[in-house]
């Protein structure tokens, strides 16, 4: 990871004067903060909010970026990851965006960050109290693929009628012999609401359970915010005789030798040679030292 | 003993059109009540009002619940009504596609109610589903097939299994054999008759087929224009119809 990217800050020193602090106007930030407070008060419940147009396309993290903009302050240190990496386009541009409009320090180190915006991963390093992790969510409704009607899914949540979610897991076992869902694996938050953990691998689900950090989830296109407060039980759904399991690899990371992190399989040449490397670049770098 | 379902003064209109008017009856445990009449006579509307799917403008429906005692179906909270409808009630639609999840296997269809009321053991759910598939005379190796690969008669039997798996006490049936050929109809009627007897079910059966009514029902209500024109024991109504409309209905059965 090049330090120049990580420490990118506006040349002038202060935030970009053309925009309000952190891009969104103060009323919008208040509205989003109200939605966040409600979401924290009712863990796992999807709170609608007035999503704004952001200077990036839907699907690139418009929800997450609005949540971050609403909670960020000058003394924060921001880390942005995309699929575990700090150096992918999405991560770099969002980090630069906040360095520019919010005048915050940025970092690639999980430990040093006070806010971590993420897409598709939870960092391997255990989060600590006081940290906030912001997830970018494409489809906030976990029941959407099973029940297309919004009125009906809301009713199902309101009445905790979650048989249909279990039906989808049953079907998966009947067809594949095991629960074949590997990402966006549905969870039950605080024994009440079923929640989509965003498309993180199920490998990361145990990290959500009783996490000391605050988890905020923002869906920009569907204009929903939900949250899991620190130390809240998050249970991955399963059957008594088919318990929830996470992915395992026979290999270790080709770069740092880690055996406990989530590995990406990378094809390295045209003859199909492949290697397994940590998806979390920060973790990998620290273990190479 | 209380009637399991007791309706009085039920009325429902859609705009200016009256769908049913002042309908009342008592359904006793173990009894099958038939509702017959021509298309548009308000049979299905009545059934939907009874099952809480439609809200009638007048009248009450009182259900004698095993868990809660006597309850007014339309005064219940939505949560409780939905709970009742997936534990103590069944609803068999005319079109099996409406009552089934076509995208998931037969086993998942049968297991849904079990999972909705808290079953979390895959093996047990599957065993129960397989058992029920057998009871409705579908080969058990079709357990993992989707209902889209089933014939019309098999879908209807699957729908029946899906409804009965939670051990309901009261089943609403809307033309369960409509749109099926006669030999398939006969099998389903046979099956239903057996199940009603062994499970001691009470049922309200809507049909326009007097043959079905004769085979399955104990009592009959004849509806015309939203009103009940005649009511009595099935054999009595069919063999000795009193009302002019009933006489016409009975007379219009084609002799084979």
How would you describe what is shown here?
The complex is a heterodimer of chains A (289) and B (256). In chain A, helix 2 packs across helix 3. Chain A has helices at residues 3-6, 26-41, 62-71, 89-101, 150-158, 163-176, 205-208, 281-288; strands at residues 47-48, 77-82, 105-106, 115-119, 132-136, 187-189, 193-195, 214-219, 224-228, 234-236, 263-267, 274-278. Chain A folds into two domains: 3-138 and 200-232, 3-Layer(aba) Sandwich (Rossmann fold), CATH 3.40.50; 248-289. In chain A, strand 6 and strand 7 (193-195) form a beta hairpin. Chain A is built from eight helices and twelve strands. With 289 residues, chain A is of the alpha/beta class. Chain A is globular. Chain A has a seven-stranded mixed sheet with strand order 1-9-8-5-4-2-3. In chain A, strands 7-6-10 form a three-stranded antiparallel sheet. Helix content of chain A is 27%, strand content 17%. By secondary structure, chain B is α/β, with parallel strands linked by helices. Chain B has two domains: 1-88 and 169-256, Rossmann fold (3-Layer(aba) Sandwich), CATH 3.40.50.300; 100-167, no CATH class. In chain B, 39% of the residues lie in helices and 26% in strands. Chain B has helices at residues 43-50, 78-87, 96-99, 106-116, 122-135, 152-164, 182-199, 210-216, 234-239, 244-251; strands spanning 5-14, 17-27, 32-37, 58-65, 69-72, 89-92, 170-174, 202-207, 219-224, 227-233. Chain B has a six-stranded mixed sheet, sandwiched between helices. A four-stranded antiparallel sheet of chain B has the order 2-1-4-5, with helices on one face. Chain B is globular. Chains A and B meet through helix 6 of A and helix 2, helix 4 and helix 5 of B.
CATH superfamily of the largest domain in chain A: Bacterial phosphonate metabolism protein PhnH
What is the succession of H and E elements of chain A? HHEHEHEEEHHEEHEEEEEH
**What is the average per-residue confidence, as pLDDT of chain A, rounded to a whole number?**
92
Cross-sheet strand order for the largest sheet of chain A: 1-9-8-5-4-2-3
How many E strands of chain B?
Answer: 10
Q: Could you list the spans of chain A in which at least 5 consecutive residues all have pLDDT below 50?
A: 1-11
Distance between the termini of chain A: 13 Å
CATH architecture term of the largest domain in chain B: 3-Layer(aba) Sandwich
Computed structural class of chain A: alpha/beta
CATH superfamily of the largest domain in chain B: P-loop containing nucleotide triphosphate hydrolases
Tally of domains of chain B? 2
What is the 3D form of chain B? globular
Helix-residue proportion of chain B: 25-40%
- Please provide the ordered H/E string of secondary-structure elements of chain B: EEEHEEHEHHHHEHEHEEHH
- How much helix, percentage-wise, in residues of chain A? 25-40%
Distance between the termini of chain B: 42 Å
Low-confidence stretches of chain B: none
Give the CATH level 1 class of the largest domain in chain A. Alpha Beta
Query: Which topology of the largest domain in chain B does CATH recognise?
Result: Rossmann fold
Indicate the structural class of chain B. alpha/beta
């Amino acid at each position: 990871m090049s330090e120049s990217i990580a420490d990118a800050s506006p040349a002038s020193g202060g935030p970009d004067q053309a925009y309000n602090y952190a891009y969104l106007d103060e009323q919008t930030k208040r509205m989003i903060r109200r939605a966040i407070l409600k979401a924290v008060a009712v863990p796992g419940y999807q709170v609608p909010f007035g999503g704004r147009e952001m200077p990036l396309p839907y699907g690139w993290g418009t929800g997450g970026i609005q949540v971050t903009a609403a909670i960020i302050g000058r003394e924060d240190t921001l880390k942005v990851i995309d699929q575990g990496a700090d150096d992918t386009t999405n991560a770099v541009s969002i980090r630069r965006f906040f360095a520019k409009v919010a005048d915050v320090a940025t970092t690639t180190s999980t430990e040093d960050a006070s806010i971590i915006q993420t897409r598709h991963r939870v960092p391997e390093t255990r989060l600590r109290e006081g940290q906030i992790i912001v997830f970018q969510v494409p489809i906030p409704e976990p029941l959407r693929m099973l029940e297309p009607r919004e009125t009906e899914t809301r009713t199902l949540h309101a009445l905790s009628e979650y048989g249909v979610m279990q039906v989808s897991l049953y079907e998966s076992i009947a067809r594949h012999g095991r629960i074949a869902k590997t990402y966006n694996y549905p969870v039950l938050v605080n024994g009440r609401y079923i929640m989509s953990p965003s498309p993180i691998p199920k490998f990361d689900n145990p990290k959500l359970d009783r996490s000391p950090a605050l988890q905020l989830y923002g869906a920009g296109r569907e204009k929903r915010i939900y949250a899991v407060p620190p130390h809240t039980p998050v249970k991955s759904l399963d059957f008594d005789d088919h318990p929830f399991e996470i992915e395992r690899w026979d290999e270790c990371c080709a770069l740092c030798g880690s055996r406990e992190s989530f590995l990406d399989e990378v094809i390295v040449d045209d003859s199909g040679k492949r290697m397994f490397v940590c998806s979390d670049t920060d973790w990998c770098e620290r273990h190479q030292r | 003993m209380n009637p399991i379902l007791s309706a009085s003064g039920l009325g429902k209109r859609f705009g200016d059109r009256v769908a049913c008017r002042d309908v009342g009856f008592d359904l006793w445990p173990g009894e099958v009540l038939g509702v017959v009449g021509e298309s548009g006579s308000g049979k299905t509307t009545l059934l939907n009002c009874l099952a809480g799917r439609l809200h009638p403008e007048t009248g009450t429906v009182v259900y004698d619940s095993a868990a809660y005692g006597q309850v007014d179906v339309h005064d219940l909270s939505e949560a409780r009504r939905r709970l009742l409808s997936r534990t103590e009630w069944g609803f068999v639609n005319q079109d099996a596609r409406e009552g089934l999840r076509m995208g998931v296997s037969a086993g998942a269809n049968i297991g849904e109610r079990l999972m909705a009321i808290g079953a979390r053991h895959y093996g047990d759910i599957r065993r129960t589903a397989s058992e029920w598939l057998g009871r409705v005379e579908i080969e058990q190796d079709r357990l993992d097939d989707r209902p889209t690969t089933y014939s019309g008669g098999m879908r209807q039997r699957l729908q029946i299994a899906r409804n009965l798996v939670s051990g309901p006490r009261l089943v609403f049936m809307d033309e369960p054999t409509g749109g099926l050929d006669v030999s398939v109809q006969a099998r389903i009627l046979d099956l239903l008759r057996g199940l009603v007897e062994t499970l001691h079910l009470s049922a309200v059966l809507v049909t326009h087929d007097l043959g079905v009514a004769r085979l399955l029902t104990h009592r009959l209500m004849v509806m015309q224009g939203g009103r009940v024109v005649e009511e009595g024991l099935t054999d009595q109504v069919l063999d000795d119809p009193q009302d002019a409309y009933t006489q016409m209905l009975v007379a219009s059965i084609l002799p084979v």
